[in-house]
Each structure stands twice: as structure tokens, then as C-alpha cells.
Write a structure and sequence with these properties.
Length: about 450
């Protein structure tokens, strides 16, 4: 998939060049000039075949759209709409002329993510770190000291109550039966929503036992519906294959109990896990555990994220430290010398030459440098908050476990781009102050410049 230069046509003489309508000092324009786009062409070209299918979309266009999406905290639809209206977005993605219509469909972003995969998309995060080093927003020495912590990347699902899941399973089976032309003995489509309302009304009041009775009725109805469908599709290979997923997950909802460990919390997202983080506002969160690594040093450009990975299976924090350090070293090209973590990482058993793992509240530390850097460990908490509020780490909409891994990587890259944009704006202001010191001093004397 080598980059191809489009042939100039006579109609281009009357089109508006982007360089004539945008400010070349804008942070997005300057960021686009700092990113090594050819690096993406070389890495992602292996996922395409020149001899099969139609010509793929430019790699810079797709990579730039994903970087802008997570930098601005937009959805796929929103970033496509913004790209069509914003000339800076188009310049960032490599366009020469202002475009009045999208050269792709919104679903192309989904297919591109699935084609490239989470492992290859780590290159986007690595490039943001490389740009930070080139612009001196962070030094290579600062990349050797990191802070590691875990959080929950929540999934975009409804709260998984028993009544809600059972009603959704009944609706799914009815849709599948109607689509396949199976006449059911009883659909329960009228009774199930009413029972769900009664259960929700009574469950958290004095009628808790009455609410549980409605849930048991719902479970009984779901069992009848499952058995009715199984009887009517028995021996029909096509029908059995068509109902396989719906029956499997509906049966899991029907059979699971309160004390079970591997429960199903969403019919459309079976990978969702229930994770308790001990928060007062939210006892349990539903998604996947995610590890985040940031630099520990006080860098000029801010606290950059140097590693992010989804951890399916809800593993113990200490068992994930080794893989997280490996990812950071791969992203930065530097060997980690000090890693700071909270008490959840006790018992990590990571022993490497030149690596010191310092746990919070460790007694007997005499080094003033380690004491100072250990105080900065809590600085990762607001970074995680920014990843959730400004990025997409909260209520992830990407499908499957692969979508969780992709979303974590791209959210970290978007955070780094926000810091780089702010750093480039500050550099431009510092350059102006250095270039015209006399007018600045005059304005200060006149109380016109704060």
C-alpha cells in the first residue's frame, strides 16, 4: 500500500488550497509536520494486498482521523462531521485541497481498526512519545522513570440487573424466531416488560421479596421460551446454527446464580467483567481492567502516557507489572530503571538488572530522590481522570476484547496529542516574548499585559 500522489487535473486550478486558508502556526498544522507519517505507511502496508480488492484509503487519512478522534474526545460520527467542516482537520490528515464531501464511509474507520489490530496500533502511541522527545517536551532520561497504576475501562452497557438481562434475552429470542419464521407457543413480549417494571418498583423498597418473585417468574418464562425453540429447531442444521449464539447466551442468563463467578453481564458484550475497585461512589464497575503507565518526572510538556494495555480476566495488579514495563520499553526504546506503584502491586516478583520497583508506604527509604519521586506517584490519578473524561476510557463502545485493547492505546495517544498541542502553543508564546521583548515590557508598564 505505497503512498500515491494523485494526478493534478485542470479542475484543481479553481479549487481552494488549504495552505491559503489556514494559519501555518496552528498547533494541528505544526503537529502534522512533526509526525512521521511514512512510518505508518511502512508498518501498516503489510495488512493490504495490492492485487486484491479495491484500492485502500490513505494511511495518513485513517491514522489522522483516529488521532483527532481521541485527541478531541469525539465519536466516529462526530469526527467525520468535524473533518468535513474543519480545514485544520483536513490539513492534519494530509489533504491539499479543501474537501466538500467525505472520501469514505464512517464504517471505514471500524473496518480499518479491525484490520490493523491493537498490537500494530501501538505504533501511534509510540510516535506521540517520539514527537514529545523531538520537541523537548520530555527528555529521554525522564522516560526511564515511570508510574504504573490500574483502572477500569468501563463498557457502554446498561446496569446488568437480572430482570433487565432476562427481558433482553426474551426480546432477542423473539426477534430471531420471527426472522427465521418459527411460530412460538407463547412469546411473553407483553408480560416480560410489565414484570420487569414491577420488579424494579419493589426491589429497593419494603417489597423486596415480592420483587424477587417477579424475577423468578421472568426466569421461568425465559426457560419455557428456550425449550420451545429448541424443540422446534431440533434436527434442522441451518436453524440450529442460526440460533446458536442467542440460545447459548440466553441459557447462560437462565442458569447463572448470584454466587457464580464467570457471569454474563451483557448479551452483546460477553467479555464484560464485574470489577470492584473499592470506590465509595461506585462499588462495582463493568468493563475490563486496564493498566496505565506515565512518566514520573516533572516534564516540561506535562505527564505523558508511555504505556496502556487492557487486562482481560481481572488479573492481580502485581502480576501485570512485568508486561506493562515491557510495553513501555517497546514504546519508548529506553530501559526502565525505576517503576513506582501503589500497594496493590505488592508481591509482583519482578526482578531485573537495573530495575527498582518502589511501592508506596515502603519504610526505610533513605534516598531523597526516591522520596521526592514517590510523592509524584499520586499524579497518575488525575491523568486517569483525564483519560476518562476527555478521552474514551469511560463507556467504551468498541466491540469485543480487541476493541478494549484498541481503545486503551488510542486514548493514551489522544492524551499525549493534547499535551503536545498545549506545548506547541506555549513554545510559540515564548518565542514571541523572546523575539519582541521591548513591546512586551512596554505593555507590562501600561498594565495591558498580564
Amino acid at each position: 500500500m505505497p503512498p500515491k500522489t494523485p494526478k493534478a487535473s485542470s479542475g484543481d486550478l479553481f479549487r481552494m488550497l488549504l495552505v491559503n486558508i489556514i494559519d501555518q502556526k496552528h498547533e494541528l498544522v505544526r503537529l502534522a509536520g512533526l509526525i512521521d507519517w511514512a512510518r505508518f505507511d511502512k508498518a501498516f502496508g503489510a495488512f493490504y494486498d495490492d492485487q486484491k480488492g479495491r484500492e485502500g484509503l490513505p494511511t495518513r487519512l485513517m491514522a489522522g482521523l483516529h488521532l483527532l478522534k481521541h485527541m478531541k474526545g469525539l465519536s466516529d460520527e462526530q469526527v467525520c462531521a468535524a473533518w468535513l467542516e474543519n480545514p485544520y482537520f483536513q490539513a492534519f490528515c494530509g489533504e491539499v485541497y479543501f474537501q466538500h464531501e467525505l472520501p469514505f464511509d464512517r464504517s471505514s474507520m471500524t473496518r480499518w481498526r479491525q484490520r490493523i489490530g491493537a498490537e500494530a496500533l501501538e505504533l501511534l502511541l509510540a510516535e506521540t512519545i517520539a514527537v514529545a522527545v523531538r520537541t523537548q517536551a520530555v527528555s529521554t532520561r525522564q522516560l526511564e522513570r515511570i508510574t504504573v497504576d490500574t483502572t477500569v475501562q468501563t463498557k457502554a452497557i446498561a446496569h446488568p440487573s437480572d430482570s433487565h438481562l432476562i427481558v433482553r434475552a426474551i426480546e432477542w429470542l423473539n426477534r430471531a424466531a420471527q426472522k427465521h419464521g418459527i411460530s412460538l407457543r407463547q412469546s411473553f413480549m407483553r408480560l416480560a416488560p410489565q414484570a420487569k417494571k414491577e420488579a424494579a418498583r419493589l426491589m429497593h423498597t419494603g417489597g423486596h421479596k415480592q420483587g424477587l418473585r417477579w424475577v423468578r417468574k421472568l426466569r421461568t418464562w425465559l426457560g419455557r421460551l428456550i425449550r420451545d425453540i429448541e424443540r422446534k429447531i431440533a434436527g434442522d442444521k441451518v436453524a440450529e446454527a442460526f440460533f446458536a449464539t442467542a440460545l447459548e447466551r440466553s441459557r447462560a442468563i437462565f442458569e447463572q446464580k448470584k454466587t457464580d463467578k464467570d457471569k454474563l453481564y451483557a448479551l452483546h458484550a460477553p467479555e464484560v467483567e464485574c470489577i470492584g475497585k473499592g470506590k465509595a461512589r461506585t462499588r462495582y464497575e463493568f468493563g475490563v481492567k486496564t493498566s496505565i503507565a506515565t512518566i514520573n518526572a516533572k516534564a516540561k510538556g506535562g505527564q505523558f502516557v508511555v504505556g496502556a494495555q487492557a487486562l482481560p480476566g481481572n488479573p492481580y495488579d502485581g502480576h501485570t507489572l512485568g508486561s506493562q514495563i515491557d510495553q513501555v520499553e517497546q514504546m519508548t526504546g529506553r530501559t526502565v530503571k525505576k517503576a513506582y506503584a501503589d500497594r496493590g502491586y505488592r508481591g509482583h516478583k519482578v526482578e531485573r538488572d537495573g530495575l527498582d520497583v518502589i511501592i508506596s508506604y515502603t519504610r526505610g527509604i533513605k534516598s531523597p530522590t526516591i522520596k521526592r519521586e514517590l510523592k509524584r506517584r499520586n499524579g497518575i490519578e488525575p491523568i486517569i481522570g483525564h483519560l476518562k473524561d476527555d478521552g474514551h476510557l469511560e463507556r467504551n463502545h468498541l466491540k469485543g476484547a480487541e476493541g478494549d485493547a484498541i481503545n486503551a492505546i488510542l486514548t493514551a495517544a489522544g492524551h499525549n496529542l493534547r499535551l503536545l498541542a498545549k506545548w506547541l502553543r506555549l513554545l510559540f508564546v515564548f518565542f514571541l516574548i523572546w523575539l519582541i521583548p521591548a513591546p512586551i515590557q512596554y505593555l507590562k508598564r501600561q498594565n495591558l499585559f498580564a
